[in-house]
Amino acid sequence: MYKDDLTLIDLARNAATTFAESPAIFDTDKTWTFAEINAASDRVAAGLASDGFKTGDRIGLYCANSAAYAICYFGILKAGCTVIPLHLLYHPQELAWILNDGEATGLIYLGVFDEAASKIREQATSLKHSYRLGADDLPTGVQNATVLLGAQGETPSPELDPNESLACILYTSGTTGRPKGAMLTHRNLVYNTFSVREAMKLTPGEDRMLVVLPMFHAFASMVGLLFPLCHGCALIPVARFDPQALIDIMQKYKPTVLPAVPSMFNAMLRLPDDAVPHFDCLRFCISGGAAMPVEVMKKFTEKFGKVIYEGDGPTECSPVTCVNPIGGETRIGSVGFPVPDVEMRIFNEAGEEMPTGEIGEICVRAPSVMKGYWKQPEETKASFFGDWFRTGDLGQVDTEGYFYIVDRKKDMVIVNGMNVYPRVVEEILYTHPQIVECAVIGVAHKSHGEIPEAWVVAEAGVTLTAADLRKFCQQHLGQHEIPRRFHQIDSLPKNANGKINKREIRKQGETERGV
C-alpha cells in the first residue's frame, strides 16, 4: 500500500479483513472484533447518508471513551464527512462556538451529556441533525443514534482525495483567545499511524492499548484509537481516569502499552504497593502531552519496574513527532528522535537553523503536518517558516540527535532581561521530598518585568513555608530563577487530558492579587 493514496477508511477496512475475528475493542459490556467494528461503522455511515449528509460535511462527536466513540468516528469518516471531536470539559457555550465556527451540520452525543447538549443545540445554529447515544427519553428534536447503529441502507463510497479531504478538525485548547481548528487530512493521519507503528514497535494482534486519555485529545486519538484500529492492535477504552480502578482493568484485559500524561503517572505513584504486580502485563508506557518531570519518571520506574518512553508532538502534527527509541537508550529529559517520515530542526526567530546544543524553537516538516487552521489563513501563515511548522516549543538537540524541550515559548519568564524556563524550576521543586506536584508561572512585575511564581502541592499533612522552599531553591537555582512567591494548594487544576492547567493557575493568582 502506498501511503499517499490511502485514506483512514482504506486502512480500517484492510485491518477488518486481515484481523477480522481478532479483538479490536474491549469495552465494559462487550468485546468487539475488527469485523464487528467495521460492520457497525458501516451502518453509521449508511444512516448518515440516508439523512442527507454528504462528502465534506462536518459532524461534532461529543462522547466519552468507548466502543461507541470509535464506531461513530469511523462511521462519520465512511460517510465522507469530517469529525469535530468535542472537549468534554469545555463549557457548552464554547462547544457551540466551535460547532458554529466549523459549520457543523450534525452532532452525535452520549446521553449522559443531555443537559450540556441541550444548551449546545440552542446556540449552535449550524446544526441540522442531532443524534443521542442512548434511547431513553429522547429530547425534542433529537434523533436516536441507535437508528444509526442499526441502519440497513447502502454504505456510501465517498470519493476522497487523501491530500485534501479533511478527516478531522481538532480545535486547540485556546490558551489565548478562541480555539483554532487544526485541519488534519486523511493523508496527515495515515502517515502518522505508520510512524507510530514503526517508532513504537507495536505488534498487530498482540499489543493492547490502555486508553485512559480522552479520545478527543490528539495524543489519544492517534495512539489509542486511529493507530490500533488501522493496524490491527486492540484498545481498552476507559471513560474516566481513576488509578485504583485501573488495577481491575489491567487484571481483566491485560493491556501491554499505557499511553498517558505525566500527571497520570504521578497519580499512580500513590497506589499501594500491592497494586504493583498488576502492572506486570505492561511492556512499557508512553508519556506525551506535557513535559515529564525527571523525578516522576524515576520514581515510577523504580516502583513499577516499567520504562516510560517520553515523546512529543503538537496537535497540528497529527500529533506524534518524536519518541525515545523503544528498547534503546532512553535519555531522561529528552523526547527522543523524530519518528519515521518526520524531520525536526531548531530555528531562531528569523527562521535560521541553530547550532547543535543551542536553544531555539522546535520546527517540524512532515506529511503529517496539518493543512492549516480552519478559516484562519493569517494564523496559518504565521505558524510556518516556509514548509516548517513552528511548534511553539523551545528546545535543543544534542550531538547524537536526541531532542529536548526546554519549555513552551509562551511560558518562558523574562526576569530583568534574563530568560527563566519554568520547567527548569519545576524539575528542581519535584526533587523536594515533600512536594507531590508543582507548577511555575510568570507574573508581571513593575520593576523586574516578570517574576517566577510557584504553586506546590505537598504530601498529606505537610505545610511548607516560603522561607524553606526559597532556601531549597537557592541550593540549585540562579537568583533570577528562584520563585519570588510560593503558594501551597491542595491540588493543581487539570484539564480533561490530565495536564496541569497553567491558564487556570494564572486566573487564580490574578484573583488573589485582585488583578
Descriptive notes:
A hairpin with a 2-residue loop joins β23 and β24 (418-420). Helix content is 31%, strand content 25%. Among the domains are: 3-22 and 31-185, Rossmann fold (3-Layer(aba) Sandwich), CATH 3.40.50.980; 412-513, 2-Layer Sandwich (GMP Synthetase, Chain A, domain 3). The protein is an alpha/beta fold and 515 residues long. The radius of gyration is 23 Å and the shape is globular. α7 (186-200) packs across α8 (218-231). The protein has 15 helices and 27 strands. The longest helix is centred in the first third of the chain and has 17 residues, at 34-50. The mean pLDDT is 93. Strands 12, 13, 14, 15, 16, 17, 18, 20, 21 and 22 form a ten-stranded mixed sheet that branches. Strands 4-3-5-6-7 form a five-stranded parallel sheet, sandwiched between helices. Strands 8-9-19 form a three-stranded antiparallel sheet.
Overall mean pLDDT = 93
**Could you give a short account of the major beta sheet?**
10 strands, mixed
Q: What percent of residues are in strands?
A: 25-35%
Structural class: alpha/beta
Secondary structure tally: strands: 27
CATH topology description of the domain at 3-22 and 31-185: Rossmann fold
Task: Provide the low-confidence segments as ranges.
Answer: none
Number of helices: 15
